[in-house]
């Protein structure tokens, strides 16, 4: 997702353009990995030393609800990243060390639904966790 697309979505949902929102969206637009609220806070503290976790989490939750950010749980903590290819069905490999992701275009649901003939699947989420090549070397 581009910053222009994110701002369009926010504007359509009557959210104002604020400095904090600009900073958070810019932060995620430059990262190709999942990041935590603490990562965001550390990034923002130089320019805004009084930024609170409440403000950060409120914005992260809004962005996630609107489909601007993707959200996952890693090691019991919420992690976020910019939404990628919103119209293309795919899944991710997520590095548990650095948070980098790699898109997986194949969906395992094709095999799984064969074993659920009398069930109506309404949705799914599939993520693979492990270490990327760079973190295995370290």
Automatic annotation (TrEMBL):
Q: Enumerate the subcellular locations listed in this protein's record, separating them with semicolons.
A: Cytoplasm
Q: Which UniProt keywords apply?
A: Cytoplasm, DNA-binding, Repressor, Transcription, Transcription regulation, Zinc
In the UniProt record, does the keyword Ubl conjugation occur? no
Q: Which CDD domains match?
A: Fur_like
Keyword Calcium, does the record have it? no
Instruction: Look up the domain of life of the source.
Output: Bacteria
Q: Which family does it belong to?
A: Belongs to the Fur family.
What is this protein identified as?
Answer: Fur family transcriptional regulator
Q: Which organism is it from?
A: Sporosarcina soli
Ranked from the top, the taxonomy reads:
Bacteria, Bacillati, Bacillota, Bacilli, Bacillales
């Amino acid at each position: 997702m581009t910053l222009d697309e994110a701002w369009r979505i926010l504007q359509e949902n009557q959210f104002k353009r604020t400095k904090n929102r600009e900073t958070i969206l810019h932060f995620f637009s430059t990262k190709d990995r999942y990041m935590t609220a603490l990562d965001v806070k550390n990034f923002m503290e130089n320019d805004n030393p009084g930024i609170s976790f409440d403000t950060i989490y409120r914005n992260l939750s809004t962005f996630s609800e609107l489909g601007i950010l993707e959200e996952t749980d890693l090691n019991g903590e919420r992690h976020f990243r910019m939404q990628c290819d919103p119209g293309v069905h795919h899944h991710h490999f997520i590095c548990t060390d650095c948070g980098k992701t790699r898109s997986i275009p194949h969906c395992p649901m094709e095999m799984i639904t064969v074993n659920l003939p009398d069930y109506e699947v309404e949705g799914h989420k599939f993520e693979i966790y492990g270490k990327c090549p760079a973190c295995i070397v370290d």
